[in-house]
Amino acid sequence: MRVLALLGPLLAALLLASAAPASAHAALRGSDPADGAVLKSSPRSVTLTFTEAVGLLDDSFRVYDPTNHRVDTSDAGHGPAGSDTARINFPKKLGTGTFTVAWRVVSSDSHPVSGALTFSVGKPSATTATVSAGPVENPVTGSLYNIGRYVAYLAVALLIGTVAFLAVCRPPDPAPLRTPVRTAWWTLLAATLFLFVLRSPYEEGTSPASAFDLSALARSATGRPGLALLARVALLAVTAALCLLFRKRVSRDLPSALSVPSRPLLATAAVLSVALALTWAAAEHASAGIQVPLAMTSSVLHLLSMALWMGGLAALLITLQRSAEPLPAAVVTRFSRVAFGSVTVLVVTGVYQSWRGLGSWQALTDTSYGRLLLVKLAAVTLLLAAASQSRHWTAKLAQAPAVPAPERVPLPVGGPADPPAEGEGEDAPLPDEPPAGSAGRHQAALRRSVLAEVAVGVAVLGITTILTGTLPGRAAAEAAESGTAPVSAGIPAAVVALVPFDVGTPNGHGKVQITLDPGRVGANSVQAVVFGPDGGISAVPELRLSFTLAAQKIGPLPANVTDRGGYWAADSVNLPIAGEWTMSVTVRVSDLDQVTVTKKVRIAA
Question: In sequence order, what DSSP letters do the residues of 8-49 get, joined into one string?
Answer without folding.
Answer: HHHHHHHHHHT-SPPPPS--EEEEESPTTEEESS--SEEEEE
